[in-house]
Amino acid sequence: xxxxxxxxxxxxxxxxxxxxxxxxxxxxxxxxxxxxxxxxxxxxxxxxxxxxxxxxxxxxxxxxxxxxxxxxxxxxxxxxxxxxxxxxxxxxxxxxxxxxxxxxxxxxxxxxxxxxxxxxxxxxxxxxxxxxxxxxxxxxxxxxxxxxxxxxxxxxxxxxxxxxxxxxxxxxxxxxxxxxxxxxxxxxxxxxxxxxxxxxxxxxxxxxxxxxxxxxxxxxxxxxxxxxxxxxxxxxxxxxxxxxxxx
Length: 247
Prior knowledge:
Blueprint: E1 2-5, E2 8-15, E3 22-26, H1 37-43, E4 48-52, E5 61-62, H2 72-85, E6 91-96, H3 98-109, E7 114-120, H4 129-145, H5 163-169, H6 178-181, E8 189-194, H7 200-209, E9 213-218, H8 225-228, H9 230-243
Parallel strand pairs: 3-4, 3-6, 6-7, 7-8, 8-9
Antiparallel strand pairs: 1-2, 2-4, 2-5
Helix pairs in contact: 1-9, 2-3
């Protein structure tokens, strides 16, 4: 599905029963809405799921590539446009890695829109990409030793119609002061990060600063947890929402 926004055409998909609680799924850096494919079968039993590509990434295109449009404020407006198209007033939220930075910004800008949030692989500090890759390799090796089958990556999880704008879309994180807004979040929050993900230290700090947040450390999991272990992450996501009386 496509919707026209300010200088962009936004790609999004819906799945599940629209009478169920809405769930917005925010993809990570370099990813597309396809990253959620392995999780959707379980999620759509309990939620009306909305996946989307941020402007410039995946199948979402832009009419001009000026950096001024790649901001969390603009992405938040884009989300509100999609929600309005679907006649959704508020939503639960699940995000991963870089997407969690965007989701934190959205939750601070439009708190009335967000019912609860799950922040996977969460960090508001500087990203150490090499450490993320190394931690993921170590976690996958341990999983293999334990006989845990490796999940195939969903087809199209990192395919973009324009790789240049997809890269530009990530610059939004440097333009928003996440540290200044993180303490303002008052919704129920689950921070869920793998034990071999270097983002775990920032995840612990976030959970300490937010009285409404719970921390879940995923054993033998590295960065990119939803792609690496969709089964484990979905189970913990649903368990959290059961505790809220949602699923």
